[in-house]
Amino acid sequence: MRRAALPRGLYAVTDSTLSGTDLVQHVAQAIQGGAVMIQYRDKGTDAGRRLWEANDLQMLCQSLRVPLIINDDIELALQCHAAGVHLGKDDADIGPARAALGEQAIIGVSCYAALQPARAAQAAGADYVAFGSFFVSPTKPAAERADLELLRAARAELQVPIAAIGGITPENGRALIDAGADLLAVISGVFGATDITAAAQAYAVLFD
Predict the structure, then answer these.
(1) Is 89 a catalytic residue?
(2) Domain coordinates in residue numbering, the chain
């Protein structure tokens, strides 16, 4: 899958407080609600558990034809045969990730609140770029803030899909889409909800 085939819609990012069977069930509910891409995000140090969970998520996502992206960990993405990897500023460069995962892998890059890193990521072969935090986020409350003007400037200049992240709700998400976001990356707004399927649907319909 290359950039032309990337879907638009809800990009559900897993909550690291979830694990095991609960994690897989909750991701299945998010996909049922309309999530078009899943990111497995876990900063824990238990490599065995992370591989087990990533394998289970990959089996689920593959069966439902939804790409699974692994946060930060190229080796884990390779081990579980995920669709791709998402890289932050302290992670490996795009070149090594592409060499390890292959030409068909989806490689996303966090660009935070600046356009220049996104230009560089696109030139290096990224399949999508991510900006944020756009709003106060419970996951990263001290994160640098991006704004709609950045999103508009990025949409006018870049050819790759753009993901927006950080404190996104169904109420504020439409403005991000109108400004150029192709994907809304959401953690607590989906996985912190009592009804995960309904929560995912509330984001998915913004793209209708």
Answers:
(1) no
(2) 6-207
188 is catalytic: no
Q: How far is CA 47 from CA 9, 52, 60, 76, 178, in A?
A: 30, 9, 20, 9, 40
Mean pLDDT, to the nearest integer, of 179-201?
A: 97
110 is catalytic: yes
Question: Dihedral of the CA atoms 100, 68, 24, 28 (nearest 10)?
Answer: -170
Chain segment 162-174, per-residue pLDDT in tens? 999 999 999 999 9
- Among 41, 50, 98, 133, the active-site one is 41
Contacts 24+ apart (CB under 8 A), 120-126: 121/94, 121/160, 122/158, 122/159, 122/160, 124/93, 124/94, 124/95, 125/94, 125/95, 125/98, 126/94, 126/160
Mean pLDDT confidence for 83-90: 92
What is the pTM (predicted TM-score) of this model? Answer: 0.94
CATH topology of domain 6-207: TIM Barrel (3.20.20)
In the structure encoding, which two tokens stand for residue 91, read together? 């992670």
Catalytic residue among 50, 110, 133, 137: 110
In angstroms, rounded to a whole number, what is the distance separating the alpha carbons of residues 30 and 76? 22
Which of 140, 145, 174, 188 does the annotation list as catalytic? 140
